[in-house]
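FORM 12-B: Structure-to-Sequence Request
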């Protein structure tokens, strides 16, 4: 939540700081889009130049176009997801110190802001906004002036560290000061911040998307660290000022073009069409021709895996549904219990965690605060944590014992799509690795499953190529539907939940996804003539019993007048008989079917939202990275 960018580089004032901030904000807008703003500083300025506007970044860009901002040497930019104070021009970031010499931007929630505000008010400080960030801006200004009185010279870096020690809650704060127009300083506590390392210029960002257009060399910052960048230097310390010299560097493994629409109308459409590549790339290099899984990147001794007797998956939203899918496969292959828990519920129920429990944290962004808190709790209790994550340099992998990256490429649309299929694949690789080290599957069985997985990108592409018409037809017919029910069984159950979530979040439709077996235990009362019911039908091959049971469920809702949309294996005569619309999918093994079944559901939500005229990439009230609890 909230996107942050900072730039330091120019010896003489020019337009680059503003250009970098606006470019960065464009790429970070998915993190929040309630308002946006920038602050620039250069030698000779009496106060920082600040411009901010409520609404999308385009509003800010138009305002700057109408009335250009001055050249500068450093800049900071912010795109906001409001937590504290309504979205408005005045509440937008940056906020400034009382004398206007310092500007700050902030991501997170400062929990002791009200106490600090009262203290500052009694000292005569005045506030324009309702935000916790303005409290920090005024406080930083006060501390910076105290340091000048003490030492005779400005030291924004020290001022920020002193303030960081006083704040409680979660924060990433960046600041600039016209008295030191060659540096940008930052501090992070429970909120993301990465450094971009350029040639004669350096960057700060909530994630690497902020600066990937300028450099792919990056450096992680750890919890409770502060950073000061100039064009030529990057200095990291803890909040007490002790130098940190072992920050981890990495190279971003995707190009700036991957975070652009590249001819597509929306990121969501592009990302759904990248689902085959997300599966393919996540499999790449993880096993050899003999079907031996190679996960050396985990850096966990296979002996440790052998000892694991329980897996708990912690995740939120779509990532949790990927975890639910994985449960079916891993329990079947490895014969150890797999629990799946919403991360925000996990630590509050006093879960049973032992050194033999492996906690698997699934997160596209790697920044979801609920999941991060679950990770910390699990480690405190002595369990090992393995992250399945799509974002290099993010916090969850950094705080986990091991990480298995999904290689879906940057996911920009708020609705998660390609990350879902990549997460399933990564979790399946983990399951197969367990089966390999624990000898619960024969080598040729693993080989066979890997071959099936390798074939999945093509099968997903088949759905993308062949289901366009029925999906569009269903979306048109159901445009005015007030609610939807989604039903699935076995691995189709989490797929139903995922399909339902997509409709809620981008088409703003009341939708419930549930296990088809529950139908007669209550939900069928909701079915009245015309009610759309979307059903995922398992193949009639293999788990025939399940197929027949789900077909019975279709008959039952059909008998009550439901409009049935059915996802079924090509040529399934039963599905055709009871469906008003069918989304066909190619034949595949039951455990792998979520990888294809979910694709028409992603497309359906997309089509419906588009027909309703909604912004599919930036649905209302949401942000891509949920970095507050
Ligand atoms: O970044 P994460 O995978 O941790 O995010 C988890 C959820 O916030 C996320 O999947 C959310 O539910 C999506 N907007 C769903 O499309």
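FORM 12-B RESPONSE
SEQUENCE OUT:
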């Amino acid at each position: 939540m909230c996107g942050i960018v900072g730039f330091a580089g120019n010896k003489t004032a020019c337009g680059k700081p503003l250009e970098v901030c606006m470019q960065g904000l464009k790429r970070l807008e998915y993190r929040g889009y309630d308002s946006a703003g920038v602050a620039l500083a250069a030698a000779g300025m009496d106060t920082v130049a600040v411009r901010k506007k409520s609404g999308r970044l385009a509003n800010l860009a138009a305002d700057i176009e109408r009335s250009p901002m001055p050249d500068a040497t450093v800049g900071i930019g912010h795109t906001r997801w409001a937590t504290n104070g309504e979205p408005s021009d005045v509440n937008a970031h940056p906020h400034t110190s009382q004398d206007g010499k310092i500007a700050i931007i902030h991501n997170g929630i400062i929990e002791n802001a009200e106490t600090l505000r009262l203290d500052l008010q009694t000292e005569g400080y005045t506030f324009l906004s309702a935000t916790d960030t303005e409290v920090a801006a005024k406080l930083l200004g006060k501390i910076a002036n105290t340091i000048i009185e003490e030492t005779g010279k400005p030291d924004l870096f020290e001022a920020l560290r002193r303030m960081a020690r006083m704040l409680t809650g979660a924060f990433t704060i960046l600041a600039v000061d016209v008295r030191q127009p060659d540096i940008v300083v930052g501090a992070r506590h429970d909120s993301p911040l990465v450094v971009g390392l350029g040639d004669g210029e350096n960057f700060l960002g909530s994630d690497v998307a902020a600066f990937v257009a300028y450099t792919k060399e990056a450096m992680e910052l750890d919890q409770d660290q502060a950073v000061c960048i100039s064009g030529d230097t990057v200095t990291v310390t803890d909040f007490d000022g002790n130098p940190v010299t072992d920050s981890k560097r990495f190279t971003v493994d995707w190009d700036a073009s991957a975070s652009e629409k590249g001819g597509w109308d929306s990121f969501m459409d592009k990302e759904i069409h990248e689902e085959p590549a997300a599966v393919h790339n996540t499999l790449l290099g993880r096993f050899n021709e003999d079907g031996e899984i190679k996960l050396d990147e985990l850096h966990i001794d296979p002996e440790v895996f052998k000892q694991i007797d329980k897996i708990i998956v912690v995740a939120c939203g779509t990532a949790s549904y990927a975890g639910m899918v994985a449960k079916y496969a891993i329990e079947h292959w490895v014969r150890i219990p797999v629990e799946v828990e919403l991360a925000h519920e996990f630590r509050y129920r006093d879960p049973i965690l032992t050194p033999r429990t492996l906690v698997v944290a699934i997160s596209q962004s790697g920044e979801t605060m609920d999941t991060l808190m679950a990770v910390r709790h699990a480690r405190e209790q002595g369990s090992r944590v393995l992250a399945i994550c799509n974002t290099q340099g993010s916090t969850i992998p950094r705080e986990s014992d091991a990480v298995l990256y999904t290689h879906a490429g940057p996911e920009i649309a708020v609705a998660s799509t390609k990350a879902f299929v990549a997460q399933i694949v990564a979790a399946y690789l983990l399951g197969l690795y367990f089966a390999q080290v624990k000898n619960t599957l024969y080598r040729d069985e693993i080989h066979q499953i890997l071959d099936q997985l390798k074939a999945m990108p093509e099968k997903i592409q088949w759905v993308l190529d062949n289901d366009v018409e029925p999906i569009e037809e269903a979306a048109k017919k159901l445009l005015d539907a007030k609610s939807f029910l989604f039903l699935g069984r076995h691995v189709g159950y989490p797929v139903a939940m995922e399909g339902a979530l997509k409709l809620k979040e981008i088409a703003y439709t009341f939708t419930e996804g549930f296990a088809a077996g529950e139908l007669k235990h209550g939900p069928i009362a909701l079915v009245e003539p015309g009610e759309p019911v979307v059903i995922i039908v398992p193949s009639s091959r293999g788990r025939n019993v399940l197929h027949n049971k789900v077909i019975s469920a279709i008959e039952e809702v059909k008998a009550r007048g439901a409009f049935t949309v059915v996802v079924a294996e090509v040529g399934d005569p039963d599905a055709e008989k009871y469906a008003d619309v069918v989304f066909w999918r190619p034949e595949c093994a039951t455990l792998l079917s979520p990888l294809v079944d979910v694709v028409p559901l992603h497309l359906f939500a997309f089509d419906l939202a588009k027909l309703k005229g909604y912004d599919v990439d930036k649905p209302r009230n949401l942000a891509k990275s949920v970095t507050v609890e």
